[in-house]
Amino acid sequence: MMVQAVYVFYAQHELHLDAALTGILFALAGLGPIIIAPLAPRIRRRLRMGQILVLVTSLSRIMMAVLDIAPLFPKLVALVVVGLTGALDYGLGTLWNVVTISYRQAVIPSQLMSRVNSALRFISWGSSPSRPSSAASSPRPSASAG
Q1: Residue 142 lies in a domain
Q2: Quick check: is 144 in a domain?
Q3: pLDDT tens digits, residue range 124-138?
Q4: CA dihedral in degrees (69, 55, 88, 129; nearest 10)?
């Protein structure tokens, strides 16, 4: 969820949350990985890897739409909706990581694992600094920027 680059701005300027409610928002969102991570093995047994990745990607797009309409709700309703959306998104991000890393560990020979891991980290984390700057250059930062 690249919304993280502008999440505090979004919470305080779009949802009009003060610092305490912004903290509660992050606390709600932080529950997602705590709840979904223990369920990952069970989900992985029920669904194939491709199904999980498509499901995570599809739900992520829906959650971005929820963030776009959340400012239309009353403040406390928006807090709960965005907090639960964040929880689901962060939890699904954890599920994505479990599935993709498990797959990588299963198919890549151990002697190549460190090289593959470093290359993938370079690609994924190396492109991260450009994402927030592209979001910041939009005329009006919104939840779907990034």
Answers
A1: no
A2: no
A3: 887 766 555 555 554
A4: -80
DSSP code of 124?
H
Closest CA to 68 of 10, 108, 4, 126: 10
CA distance 135 to 144: 9
Domain that holds residue 94: 2-136
Tokens encoding 68: 């776009």
Angle value at C-alpha 100, between 122 and 66, nearest 5 degrees: 90
One-character DSSP codes across 35-62 = HHGGGHHHHHHHS-HHHHHHHHHHHHHH
The total of structural domains in the chain comes to: 1
Q: What is the pLDDT of residues 41-70, one digit of tens each?
A: 999 999 999 999 999 999 988 998 999 999
Counting Cα atoms < 13 Å in the Cβ hemisphere of 73 gives 15
CA 121 to chain centroid, in Å, comes to 17
Domain-embedded: residue 42? yes
Judge whether 21 lies within some domain.
Answer: yes
Q: How far is CA 104 from CA 28, 49, 108, in A?
A: 31, 12, 6
